[in-house]
Amino acid sequence: MSTGIFLSYKGLGANILHLSYCHEIANKFGPVTIITLCKNLQPILSEDPLIKEVICLENYYKKFLHIYKLSRIFKKMNLDNLFIY
């Protein structure tokens, strides 16, 4: 079972603020994949055992047209659970 968490924040502080929620989800479902818009999050979470991988999306923002592009990316990942913050 694979679980993904989409953190739709560009700032590092907002992503770290939601990290406690990510850990609670990981405790329930196992190691999770984090998809984010923040470039600096991957080196910080590289040694976290509850985080399987961190994927950074650089060309997507909170615009209406990007919703369809993001949905295609999420469908290709074949995630069983997807949590969006």
Structure characterization notes:
There is one protein chain. By secondary structure, the protein is an alpha/beta fold. It has helices spanning 12-17, 19-29, 41-44, 66-77, and strands spanning 3-7, 32-36, 51-56, 81-84. Helix 3 links the parallel strand 2 (32-36) and strand 3 (51-56). It has one domain (3-84): Rossmann fold (3-Layer(aba) Sandwich). The relative contact order is 0.29. The chain is globular and about 35 Å long. It has 4 helices and 4 strands. The chain has a 4-stranded parallel β-sheet, covered by helices on one side.
Produce a short descriptive summary.
This protein has helices spanning 12-17, 19-29, 41-44, 66-77, and strands at 3-7, 32-36, 51-56, 81-84. It has four helices and four strands, in the order E-H-H-E-H-E-H-E. Strand 2 (32-36), helix 3 (41-44) and strand 3 (51-56) form a beta-alpha-beta unit.
Report Rg: 12 Å
Given helix and strand content, the structural type is alpha/beta
Overall body shape: globular
CATH topology: the name is Rossmann fold
**How many extended strands?**
4
SSE string? EHHEHEHE
Strand order of the largest sheet: 3-2-1-4
Total separate domains:
1
| Weakly predicted, low-confidence segments | none
Which CATH first-tier class would you pick?
Alpha Beta
CATH architecture: 3-Layer(aba) Sandwich
Helicity range = 25-40%
Biggest sheet record: 4 strands, parallel
Note the gap between the termini: 20 Å
The DSSP helix count reads 4
